[in-house]
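BUG: 3D viewer hangs when loading the predicted structure for this chain

Environment: internal workstation, default settings.
Expected: structure renders.
Actual: progress bar stalls at 90%.

Input used:
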Amino acid sequence: MESRKFLRLLLIFVSAALVLSLFTWVHLPSVPPAAVPGLFGCAASSPRCTSKKRFQLIKNGPKPTSGRRHESDAPHHPLDPLTVQEFNKVRGILRSHQLFKSSPYALHSVVLEEPEKSLVQKWRKGDPLFPRKAAVVARVKRQTYVLTVDISTGGVAVQKVNHISGYPVMTIEDMTSATSAPLSNADFNRTIIERGVDLKDLACLPISLGWFGKKEENRRLIKVQCYSMEGTANFYMRPIEGLTVLVDMDSKDVVEISDKGRNIPLPKADNTDYRYSALKVSETKMVNPISIEQPKGPSFAVEDEHFVKWANWEFHLKPDPRAGVIISRARVRDPDSGEIRNVMYKGFTSELFVPYMDPTDAWYFKTYMDAGEYGFGLQAMSLDPLNDCPRNAHYMDGVFAAGDGTPYVQSNMICVFERYAGDIGWRHSESPITGMEIREARPKVTLVVRMAASVANYDYIVDWEFQTDGLIKVKVGLSGILMVKGTSYANMNQMPGQKNLYGTLLSENIIGVIHDHYVTFYLDMDIDGSDNSFVKVDIKKQVTSPGESPRRSYLKAVRNVAKTEKDAQIHFKLYDPSEFHVINPNKKTRVGNPVGYKVVPAGTAASLLDHDDPPQKRGAFTNNQIWVTPYNQSEQWAGGLFVYQSQGEDTLAVWSDRDRPIENKDIVLWYTLGFHHVPCQEDFPIMPTVSSSFDLKPVNFFESNPILRVPPNVERDLPVCKPAADA
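Structure tokens produced before the viewer hung:
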């Protein structure tokens, strides 16, 4: 797709006093423009932008690229997301409610209000569903409300929010209107022209501003920074450095314009485009095409749109506008008893914290909370078959609500597929000296649930990978485009002394700024039931007594059961190693070990920011890599329910400091994957994917190796594919 045509699905076309067309980039998810009122902000006179066309998709039924239509969707499971019909009912109920009748309003979140956990655990397929309710976060007259809407009765319970700081996740309309606001300001337009940028080439980003003091309180603010699209689709590499516009999101007024980069040139467009169609490449490929073929089809099934069954696993899967993907009721079949056993009640991405390490005027506030500010699921893009996901993948659409409650479709938001990469499930070959000719090996095939979100420049790939041995691997991949800073320097030999660049010179006049990524996961582990305990298994050096052994030292495992939350605040230490188990103390194996799972850490970068630094106060959930809290349905978002401009008084760190009992209780484990990113030239103009992961691994959960009886591959069972030339 041509760059300008592609960008028109993402940019606002705004009518201005000038005769020129103005484009502004907005932080948009992959939704058809017609699905969201106001999303495709054309000039009023544009024939492309009539309200009839704008609403055509919903009126005629959502048309996702997966081929599914959603008008007749119905829930089958208590955790199934709201359907198109239910969204429309909620919208109608709210429009007739007294709170919304006479005032403009915005719905910032409309999702299923999940039934109580104990009820869901008892529910079986074929049982009647519990009353369906919607949890709604709305703003009316600059006030935030939390509502529960009973879809069948039409009842509405309203709670006004006053006691904590912060605002809800931005709507798409918030972001589009914020980026168009500067264009109505004559000083801004004049500054752009003076910087040598044609207004028709302008692209602007809505940037959350964190919280840095009282002057930012009592109004929703956002900062806008702009780029030049001239000569490239990769406008991120052409920042108009130092120009920042402060906008009031409710009034749409420009509060302040800061321009402190007039001496910094606009980086050139040369070599910034990353599209295959724009690159000069030879037709010779580095590797031959490869594909995993499944003539008998995949081994998994998706029942009733959201319930996945594969090998010895089953779980509920749904898209979510804030978390992206939610895995629920994950259970595995025991190979000995045949029993289906509980492992995890619910798991999802709770928050992403991305602080940039530049304290200067145009950068200090860039400390994003991608889930709580922008909506991680709202930024999910349609996955590209054969490139994002292999053949035989199953695709799942998301159905979400726009700011006025109108439902729209996020097509192909999630894919599910089987992976075989030549890995080995288990093996052993016996040495010839034993006289036994034994060579046993088993292939490893896994099931992957994948989502990819493009939060402006950065792309996140989140995989939940299920293995037949009971292990769950959670992996995050980072790709996309760096957020860069313009500079007057074109070469490192121009640097005076030890001047602080706050990053790496990637190309002429472009600095990749150092930053961190922290991805915090909510993991409601239910190991054979809800009452679990957290055990820290310390690996300690033991010194032998004189004459006891030729050895002078060895290692010993010392188990410590956490009594309260503070016992389970874990900060990793390389030379003080531990294992971290969630066990069911009420159920033992045949030989008397408590059944459990353990967290196998990776991606262990820790925040080095001062705990009193305002961004770290808001991101205090990254002060530890592991936390354990008692289950509380209201404590699911590590940065708090209302993250935007919050001051950090409703975070995981605050909850955990209550030091509540957690031994033999229904507990939730929180794990944070961390990345330090010092950019390098290989990250330009687009980054190769860097990934890290952690595992949830059985520990004394099974009586023995659960894949012991898996048969080996034999030639006759495998498909034989001929090269295209021989076909």
